[in-house]
Amino acid sequence: MASGGFRLKRIYEEPARQDGMRVLVDRLWPRGMSKEHAELDEWDKELAPSTDLRKWFHADRDERFDEFSERYRAELQGDDQQERLATLRGKAAKSTVTLLTGTADAEHSYLAVLLEELEQR
After folding, report:
1. Which one of 43, 59, 91, 113 is separated from 98 by 20 to 30 angstroms, measured CA to CA?
2. Which pLDDT does position 1 carry in this prediction?
3. Which domain holds residue 93?
4. Residue 72's closest CA among 60, 62, 80, 81?
5. pLDDT in tens, 66-89
């Protein structure tokens, strides 16, 4: 996606030129990752699921993903969150924005839900 848009990536993968702007969307700093090696442009803790929602989901990821997705989408409806989403959309309209997480499976995580929300408008 050299002309813009969003990508998902684990922070443990090597940074690449194609990443464009690198944004960590996680409330917790990923284990074993140095800030220098992460090569972040931003760390947006607030766009990640709330601590309570994250802990609830973590207890049973397989069974709770659908309900988790609904709850996380509801968290993203607040004015502050909508402002953050709009800012990211604006950046992605100009160049690639890679959303990063420490989660083992970025494609089946809150990051995938966030990506759907970002791409809806």
Report:
1. 59
2. 35
3. 5-120
4. 81
5. 999 999 999 999 999 999 999 999
Number of domains in the chain: 1
pTM of the model: 0.88
Cα gap 32→119, rounded to integer Å: 31
The phi and psi torsions of 24 (rounded to 5 degrees) equal: -80, 125
Residue 24 belongs to what H/E stretch? Answer: strand 21-24
Burial (Cβ within 10 Å: 0-12, 13-18, ≥19) of residue 10: middle
pLDDT confidence bin for 121, thresholds 50/70/90: low
The closest alpha carbon to 27, from 103, 82, 79, 89, belongs to 103
In 3-state terms, what secondary structure has residue 86?
helix
What is the token pair recorded at 84?
A: 């953050």
